[in-house]
Design brief:
Layout: H1 7-21, H2 37-42, H3 44-50, E1 54-65, E2 69-76, E3 79-86, H4 92-101, E4 107-116, E5 122-133, H5 149-154, H6 156-162, H7 164-186, E6 190-191, E7 197-198, E8 210-213, E9 218-222, H8 227-235, E10 240-248, E11 260-269, H9 273-292, E12 296-299, E13 302-305, E14 312-314, H10 315-322, H11 337-344, H12 356-368, E15 376-382, E16 391-392, E17 395-406, E18 409-416, H13 421-436, H14 447-454, E19 460-466, H15 467-475
Parallel strand pairs: 3-5, 6-10, 14-15
Antiparallel strand pairs: 1-2, 1-4, 2-3, 4-5, 7-9, 8-9, 10-11, 11-19, 12-13, 15-17, 16-17, 17-18, 18-19
Helix pairs in contact: 6-7, 7-9, 7-15, 10-12, 11-12, 13-14
């Protein structure tokens, strides 16, 4: 028996040992259900009329022993169902297993006919019963559930058992991803896979995770973005491609940031950023309709509608639009920093000295971004922070770039792709110089990517959609940890002699 400080757990291990002593296996190898609990409910009338026997399996979530009979509810992935066992309807050993060894939390199999009780509840009348997997730990107390947020994230397996809304969120997440994949495939996009370990970190401005490949004797980076590999495929002749996979960024953790996150990244030949904005809007609207049957949602008490056309506002116009009193603020990307700070002084004081573009970005992120409940496209970013994007012909300081905001968060990012190898080389050189000045998030020089561009990449536009954040706003989940099954957490600290769920419990008396 494994050591544990909890008496209830010790008792359950002892039950398992006694079962083995009687040649009763507490963890069976196989059991074949014929119906899910939902299928029993959906076909109840036919099952009752035909007296057909069903075999159902699931976890016991409630148990009421009554001497020579017992009622209990099992729960499988489709929902709960009541079962009824009485001493003269099942083999003697089956009833003894139920009475002597069964606890709430055990995974069991029940065979029998379906009937409706006097209180109107659909029930399986068992003619056989078996423990399929013995539960050694008690579930959280019925009325209080699993409340501690960190425990919910750390023990997601328990969270999914006891909180139905959590399971529903992850089912919706899976459907969102599947619907997005299906829609893009219908539009003629090809799904591809690119490396997760890169010899040079690139494709975004972010701090990478670093590792080492022993056989090759080289350092590698977990990818911060798949962009440069996907664009190599554009050079190779693919014209409509996408990838849905993980990115890794060695940065802070918050309600909107997790170091490991899921992105859709997509590229279309012969498009510019305006075409990609159209696609972004249509894709998100289509996914919402297919999965939820509506375009109207609520996120953190803010209602938004994905049905109407998404407005498009330039970066500087957004400051003038959303900062009270700033309607006539004359901001320019090429103003000296001192001039910019003087212009914005009535509205905002930067926290640090820096170039003009960084001062404007700081103001935008502080004063404007929280108001973008959206959906809204923000366009025309500073070229200085868009090293892989084409600049506007009429304004070389501005990139042909957009970001989509919903719920005050950036959901998507896209731009017209820079495909001039000479200019891309110069942009990389600027990034290298920024790294030498101490900017750990600046990109590295990727000479192989420059070589690829020298073979010729067609005009193209790319898109990245943050799947986790999109799921957040579509399911009204306030934290990114609510939509990631196993979010990154600090190592668990020893808890001493306390309940395994980290909170006061009053579990039912163990038999």
């Amino acid at each position: 028996m494994l050591p544990d400080w909890n008496e209830i757990i010790r008792t359950r291990y002892q039950k398992a040992e006694r079962m083995r002593a009687e040649n009763i296996e507490p963890f069976v190898h196989r059991w074949n259900p014929t119906h899910s609990t939902q299928a029993v409910k959906a076909n109840a009338d036919a099952l009752i009329a035909s007296k057909e026997k069903v075999r159902v399996a699931g976890r016991i979530i409630a148990l009421r022993m009554m001497g020579k009979a017992a009622f209990f509810h099992i729960k499988d992935e489709t929902g709960p169902l009541q079962c009824y066992v009485k001493i003269d309807a099942v083999p003697e050993h089956a009833f003894r297993i139920l009475k002597t060894y069964t606890d709430v939390g055990d995974i069991v199999g029940v065979q029998g006919e379906v009937f409706v009780t006097r209180t109107g509840e659909l029930t399986v009348l068992a003619d056989n019963y078996e423990i399929l997997a013995k539960s050694m730990r008690p579930l959280p107390e019925k009325w209080h559930g699993l409340r501690d947020q960190e425990t919910r994230y750390r023990q997601r397996y328990v969270d999914l058992i006891v909180n139905d809304h959590v399971r529903a969120t992850f089912v919706k997440r899976s459907k969102i991803v599947a619907s997005m994949r299906q829609y893009l495939t219908e539009l003629g996009y090809l799904e591809v896979e690119t490396p997760m370990m890169h010899p040079i970190c690139g494709g975004a401005n972010a701090r990478p995770f670093k590792t080492h490949h022993n056989a090759l004797g080289i350092d590698l980076y977990l990818r911060i973005a798949p962009e440069l590999y996907l664009k190599r495929l554009m050079v190779g002749g693919f014209e409509k491609i996408f990838e849905i996979n993980r990115n890794f960024r060695n940065e802070g953790i918050s309600t909107r940031h997790n170091p490991e996150f899921t992105m859709l990244e997509l590229y279309t030949a012969y498009w510019d950023y305006r075409d990609t904005m159209d696609l972004t809007e249509k894709t998100i609207r289509e996914v919402a309709q297919r999965v939820f049957g509506t375009t109207k949602f609520v996120f953190e008490d803010q209602e938004f509608d994905l049905g109407p056309e998404f407005p498009r506002v330039t970066y500087l116009d957004a400051i003038r639009k959303f900062v009270p009193g700033a309607e006539h603020l004359d901001l320019r990307w090429d103003d000296p920093p001192e001039v910019t700070k003087k212009k914005i002084a009535p509205f905002f004081t930067p926290e640090f000295d820096g170039p003009t573009y960084q001062i404007i970005i700081d103001m935008f992120e502080t004063l404007v971004e929280p108001q973008l409940t959206g959906p809204i496209f923000i366009t025309e970013f500073a070229k200085a922070v868009s090293p892989l994007a084409k600049s506007k012909p009429a304004d070389p300081l501005v990139a042909e770039r957009f970001e989509l905001y919903i719920g005050g968060m950036e959901i998507a990012n896209g731009y017209s792709e820079l495909n001039d190898p000479q200019e891309q080389y110069l942009r990389f050189k600027e990034q290298v110089e920024a790294r030498e000045r101490g900017d750990e998030e600046a990109q590295q020089m990727d000479e192989d990517y420059i070589r690829a561009l020298e073979y010729g990449m067609p005009p193209a536009s790319g898109l990245g959609i943050g799947i986790d954040r999109l799921v957040m706003v579509l399911t009204n989940s306030p934290s990114i940890r609510d939509v990631i099954l196993f979010p990154l957490l600090k190592p668990e600290q020893p808890r001493g002699d306390e309940d395994e769920h980290g909170e006061e419990q009053a579990p039912a008396k163990e038999s």
